[in-house]
Amino acid sequence: MRNRSHRPRRFAWKAFYWLVWNLAVVSIHAQTAKDLSQVKKVFVSSWSDGNGAAELHDSLVKQLRKSGKFEVVASPSQADAVIKGSGQIWVKGHIASSPRSPSTNRQAIFGGFLSAQVVGADNAVLWSYLVTPSKFAWGSISDNLSESLVREMIGAQAKMGQTPNQRVAQTSLYGAGSTFVAPLYQLWFESFQQQHSDIHLSYDAVGSGSGVQLLLQGKVDFAASDVSPSDQGPLQSAAGFPRIASVLGGVVPIYNLKDLGQDLKFTPEALAGIYLGKITKWNDPIIKRANRGVSLPDANIIVVHRSDSSGTTHVWSDYLSKISPEWKAAEGAGMTLKWPVGMGTEYNEGIAATVQRTPHSIGYVELVYAIRHQLSFGAVRNAAGEYIRANLESVTAAASAMAGDPASITNASGKDSYPIAAFTFLLWPKQVKDSKKKAALLELLQWALTNGQKECSALGYAPLPHDVANRQLQVLDSFK
């Protein structure tokens, strides 16, 4: 029995699943679709309670019927596939509908999300996606979200495939690392084990730096890191470890300001100035110029940053180093920094929770943590001069601007690219002497690059572009 006393504190990720209430396996008897292209008849399963959940469910059914592409049936036994989903709607603030009487004529500004998985034969996930409100929304927010989801589902129908699984002998795999991608890995590993009951998986979300250190010490079988292969900072000895890019995500600036009426826009100069400690007030002219018409408070900015060795910090500081010569000279990019200002806390979850309870604060987290905590997050001006919000499309656009093997994609070119996007990676030892463990690890990695890619979008992570995924599969060929 392996001694597990070394294992760091594990996150209670079960609490995360309010975001994907209905993504647990349900009893499905008659589903026959093995690819999204085969889905014509769908059953939309009931959702757990939550603000706006019932409204979103009904709107999705309406939009599926309206599309003319799908028949919504009355029971799972009649369906090619089942759509399982979750969603919430919340009030972000209010805006005056009449300038003459702003205190009495106030219109609510809504935030929300809609997440869905399409599940076919053998409980296999055929497709998944998560949408947030579009920039220009007309009508109700529930219709806006459901229309966007159905549009994406229709567009993806012809692109899905299915990869057969191979069985390996009973074994266990232990991993540790990135909190950036931990919500997805928790879902991935449970899904993988449902299809591979002979492989036991365990993952500790301890941060990229700690995870890589555990791999170097031989205490885990694989590690997860958001740091590109060429830049391991103090862990340069890990630079030669074999690895694959597994998925894409976006780091967003979150903030706690009430009743602004709209989401903020951040220029690169504003973000660098805030984290350098040179912009200290929310109504600073640099912030106001990008947010004309927004009533910004005359309040001190409370800066929140990571205190642990963090891949998310590396992505954030890598971006700041590219857009600010002053930041690059003073701080640079790294997993741990000597921060010039602010209060530190551990993990993405810690940053989100701290900003959530601290008025006038700002922080940075992976997109899904902002959604989970119902936090406002800003649009960021990209290299083309466009203010872009993080979502599946804008993160994918940043990756599409990259040529060659996966590397840093912060401040990517392209008018639709979100500028603080990143690949995240899975690493493993150069030599795995246990043949059963090696076979299990190879099967997990192959699954992540094929079937796993279909599950990531429901949690707000973008799947790898097809050419990148194919190159990662070629990397695995040398591991066999």
Structure explained in plain terms:
Mean pLDDT is 85; it is low at 1-29 and 161-169. The longest helix is centred in the N-terminal third of the chain and has 16 residues, at 141-156. The strands form 3 sheets. Strands 6, 7, 8, 9, 11, 12, 13, 14 and 17 form a 9-stranded mixed beta sheet that branches. A 5-stranded mixed beta sheet has the order 2-1-3-4-5, covered by helices on one side. Strands 10-15-16 form a 3-stranded mixed beta sheet. 29% of the residues lie in helices and 22% in strands. It contains 13 helices and 17 strands. The chain starts with 40 loop residues before the first strand and ends with a helix. It folds into 3 domains: 17-159, Double Stranded RNA Binding Domain (2-Layer Sandwich), CATH 3.30.160; 171-242 and 427-458, Periplasmic binding protein-like II (D-Maltodextrin-Binding Protein, domain 2, 3-Layer(aba) Sandwich), CATH 3.40.190; 250-422, D-Maltodextrin-Binding Protein, domain 2 (3-Layer(aba) Sandwich), CATH 3.40.190.10. With 480 residues, it is of the alpha/beta class. Helix 1 (53-67) crosses helix 2. The protein has helices at 53-67, 141-156, 182-195, 208-216, 268-276, 285-290, 311-323, 325-330, 347-357, 367-372, 392-400, 435-449, 466-477; strands at 41-44, 71-72, 81-96, 106-119, 125-131, 171-177, 199-205, 222-225, 243-255, 265-266, 302-306, 343-345, 361-366, 376-377, 379-381, 387-388, 421-427.
Compose a concise summary of this entry:
The protein has 480 residues and is of the alpha/beta class. Helix content is 29%, strand content 22%.
